[in-house]
Amino acid sequence: MEKVERMGAQQPRPVALVGGRVRLIDQTRLPQELSFVDLHSPEEVWQAIAHLKVRGAPAIGMAAAYGLYVGLAKQSFGDSAELGRELESIASYLQTARPTAVNLAWAMNRLRRCFLSHRQEDVQSIKDALRDDALAIQREDETACGQMGEHLLTLMHDGMGVLTHCNAGALATSQYGTALAGLYAAHERGWRVKVFADETRPVLQGARLTAWELQRAGVDVTLICDNMAATVMAQKKVHAVMVGADRIAANGDTANKIGTLNLAVLASHFHIPFYVVAPQSTIDPDTARGPDIPIEERAGEEVVQWQGIRLAPEGISVYNPAFDVTPHELVTAIITERRIWHPPFAFSGTGGG
Ligand code: MRU
Predict the structure, then answer these.
(1) Burial of 244 from C-beta contacts in 10 A (0-12 / 13-18 / 19+)
(2) What is this structure's pTM?
(3) Active-site annotation holder among 133, 141, 198, 246
């Protein structure tokens, strides 16, 4: 049997529930420093999500689920109806932290359903059930990432080159990541896979996070600027593009970090497969098509300055959409924990299947 060394233990865990607090890796401080912050309230969790201390679709869903539980756990309620009203208020509030990744709303809806199925119980039992369900979201995400990695392996070969964008790795999930799961799985098997990581302007998730976590795991990773992708493709160094997703519409149109669409267009031109890798919870069957996906616009400051250093003239106009939508025609396959979905994509029902 093939010897596979599991690297789960070395993986950074971006989110955890620790002693009634939400503990996060502060991703704004990477790669300079691996430091953690403890959050004590839904307001602190909201701020952490909005300011990218925690980011990546599955990770913000997990953080919000823990934030909701923490917000309820520290309060006293006369009865379950009172708890239910507060749950709705906190969940609706947390959902506003970022609009594009559907995993945030998905996690809140899951805890809403958990409450409904336990509402006949006493307040403490309901709180316990919500905590257990929030923990289950993270455990299930770990399993799902492992399964995505196994599916991806069937699309990969020893010696290949893979281009990825933003960070869809362990830092964006509970373990392994989505788009990076196959790279970790291949690495565990001793395959020589060469990864090209886009810097991912404006806030450099590729340079700061993907490069950091892959290098730390011993994966062969080369950092390129976003505008170098066409060149590495033209030089035949890339055999597949693998990206994550923040929301996948029913027809397979996919929102992901700004710049993903550029890569999809390039991949089509160079006849390179373009794979979208995400948990089923990222599929939103209630959103029919890409243009219906809400796209977050972030502060222009992210574009015109970096850590206090001005990069562009004062007063310049800036447009800063955080995500773009890749039309389904450009997607070769969508890989979830359940299976590899090939076109034509037509997702319906709960969980996208
Ligand atoms: O703005 P970010 O850093 O939250 O954007 C993250 C991405 O676009 C990821 O590719 C996506 O969330 C998938 S993470 C597995």
Answers:
(1) buried
(2) 0.96
(3) 246
